[in-house]
What we know:
Elements: H1 2-27, H2 45-68, H3 71-76, H4 81-112, H5 114-118, H6 122-143, H7 157-163, H8 179-194
Helix pairs in contact: 1-8, 2-4, 4-6, 6-8
Transmembrane segments: 6-23, 44-69, 89-108, 128-144, 179-197
Organism: Streptomyces parvulus
Family: In the N-terminal section; belongs to the nitrate reductase alpha subunit family. In the central section; belongs to the NarJ/NarW family.
Amino acid sequence: xxxxxxxxxxxxxxxxxxxxxxxxxxxxxxxxxxxxxxxxxxxxxxxxxxxxxxxxxxxxxxxxxxxxxxxxxxxxxxxxxxxxxxxxxxxxxxxxxxxxxxxxxxxxxxxxxxxxxxxxxxxxxxxxxxxxxxxxxxxxxxxxxxxxxxxxxxxxxxxxxxxxxxxxxxxxxxxxxxxxxxxxxxxxxxxxxxxxxxxxxxxxxxxxxxxxxxxxxxxxxxxxxxxxxxxxxxxxxxxx
Length: 240
């Protein structure tokens, strides 16, 4: 079981992720979407969606730093283990609270707004359960041991995570890891495998070009402002 969980399941989850993305791109491009329900209700969505997306972004960044930045690197730039622990504890907890609050508002919106609820599929409910479970269990695991520098996952879970990329998983490092971290890791791997088959797939098609594209020009409908306009600096400038 130890070999299966920490030496087989990670690769199975990654294989399902890649296979699902390829299948979705080839046979379900029109379904590669968030299936936005903004047309049914936008007031609560405009609050819940940014809270969730910023929260989950901070959670992902925190996991990437915690798992793939060795302790020797942070120590080399002057960050002590205690300082790192405090940043991880308070920063991770805040990110988790934001994410859970966002999910809570999104679920409340789907349950109380009839048109949105009718547009909610069993797949969506399944996805919310695993996503919420992964976040909440991660927070519980983190908060279950706050004495001293807490559980030192950077000497067990982090090296195991990095060893997966060398195709030589060090499964023995996961033997003494607390059960809560075990469950959190398993649910996280299952969630990774589910991404291509749920609305979470839209994370791979985020419109990053919005950051660099020219601004959109909106013209006024006021008749007094219609007609020729003088050239302006920037993308609108046509030159001589």
